[in-house]
Every structure is written in C-alpha cells, then in structure tokens.
TrEMBL record:
Transmembrane parts of this sequence: 27-45
Domain of life per record: Bacteria
Keywords (A to Z) from UniProt: Membrane, Transmembrane, Transmembrane helix
Name of the protein described by the UniProt record: Uncharacterized protein
Lineage: Bacteria, Pseudomonadati, Pseudomonadota, Gammaproteobacteria, Pseudomonadales
Organism this protein belongs to: Pseudomonas knackmussii (strain DSM 6978 / CCUG 54928 / LMG 23759 / B13)
C-alpha cells in the first residue's frame, strides 16, 4: 500500500516510477532495455506486415544516343531528332529557322 499511497504505478511499471530504493543507474538501464525491446518489436512488426518489394529489374535497354540541336543546343534522343545534312534539330521550327539563317 505504501507505493500506491505515494502515487506509484502497480505491476510491471512500478520499478520505473518508484525506484526510490534503487540506484538511478539501474532504473536507467531498465528503461533503456525496455525502449530497445520496444524498438526491436516495432521494427520486426513493420518488417513482417510490409509487402515485399519486387526485386529491381536489371535494365536491358541500352541508352539512346543523344544529339545536340544546332539551333538551341538542347540535347534530344537521336530517334526524336530531325536531321538535315550533318546537323540535328529538336523540332521542325528550329530546322526551318536554321535553314533560313544559313540559306
């Protein structure tokens, strides 16, 4: 009744709250033990309840070659670029602008 009269918690948590007869180091050790135990339990629970991530697929695709637009300098994939002689362009408008500029 002495612990309850002083406002101490009954049961398992009594040693955390009412450790007047124990050294502070022992109480701190117990507190750290329970915190670590709780953290591990939480980590295992999260790991068990999360859906498994699919394995990363290796990229079989080769990187597409890039070319530089002769008008604005933007790099675009060669498959999407427009070519006129040895020059590449990012759009039809830039192709026409460069043709009027160079004649």
């Amino acid at each position: 009744m002495g612990n309850l009269a002083r406002g101490c918690l009954p049961g398992v948590l009594a040693w955390l709250h009412c450790g007047s007869s124990e050294k502070k180091g022992t109480t701190m050790t117990r507190l750290l033990f329970w915190l670590i135990l709780f953290a591990l339990a939480w980590w295992f629970w999260r790991k068990a309840t999360r859906p498994q991530r699919p394995a990363a697929k290796p990229r079989d695709e080769q990187a597409e070659p890039m070319v530089r637009c002769a008008q604005c300098g933007v790099h675009v994939p060669r498959a999407q670029a427009l070519q006129n002689e040895q020059r590449w362009y990012c759009s039809q408008a830039h192709l026409q602008q460069d043709q009027t500029r160079h004649g």
